[in-house]
Amino acid sequence: MRQRALDYLAKREYSYAELGQKLKSFAEENDDIGALLDDFRARGWLSDARFTEQLVHARKAKFGSARVANELREKGIADDLIAVAVSQIKVSELDNAREVWRKKFKDSPATREEWAKHARFLQSRGFGFDIIKQVLSQTKGE
Q1: Does the domain spanning 47-91 belong to CATH 1.10.1060?
Q2: Which helix (H) or strand (E) holds 131?
Q3: 1-46 CATH fold
């Protein structure tokens, strides 16, 4: 069990809950996954903060704060770490949303239907309505 956990961690960072879930399917009756994960955490091999930082770095250019926060919640990250991650993403969220929009759509929306389509796309990427409004209203003049 220990070697399997080390193999997983050698490939990428995992959250405490995510690695525990992965190891459950391989656990035998006498395996204590919690103790193993606590030992890894004490040694610094397993860190939710490091996992959060890595995930934010990988996702912030493509996704909004809502989607990243939801993904972190699904991975079992604590609310205080999620709040820090969201605040980091919010700093450049408008620029990121504008860049994501620009890659998908070349022209500004001409009709209400096109505006709604563009807005739904950005919303599916996890951007809030205030950011969507700013992106789509600023593109009208371009």
Answers
A1: no
A2: helix 129-138
A3: Arc Repressor Mutant, subunit A (1.10.10)
